[in-house]
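pasting for ref
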Amino acid sequence: MTWLADTATSYDTVADSYADFVSGALEKEPYLKAALTLFATQVDGPVVDVGCGPGHFTAYLASLGVDASGVDLSPGMIDLARRSHPGLRFEVGSMTDLALPDASVAGVLASWSLIHIPDDSVPVTLKHFRRILRPGGLLMIGYHVGAGTRLKTEGYGGHPMRVHIHLRQPWWLARRVREAGFTVDAEWLLNPEAPTPQAVLFASS
């Protein structure tokens, strides 16, 4: 799929600049930090951060005592994550075809990574999340709220990119999560006054 290759290449290109951009992000976003902390306290077992980027959220979960690992489509991001967090496990992989055993994790974190998945690929991606989760496992998804898709052609540090960013309404995502076999437990709307609000969805398997 062309969009997968474009996404991987784009994030390879901006890996270092993106890592600088998100450095200290949690200190600037107390409500997001609280959501991740809640997720960490509720999960009971290993967690995979899908679309982990440079591993900053993976590392935060690990700092709270979670057995956290990361998967990302971009080899450049994974190389950076391994260098930045040598004590943690990071692997190259796609959330559309996760190479993890059934019922192998207690939690899945997808923080602003599902935004690059086209609408028609979201159901199969969520089914992979459901497949790898143990019964009673937890899912946390962070995403942009809105409607439509935009093409990002210039990224962090001014580097060229070619990635589609899909904005979604909470009802739309919640419906797909339920259809994949999850129970939606909570939904948080973050910075609702911003031009593009953010949201977090919590669900259990």
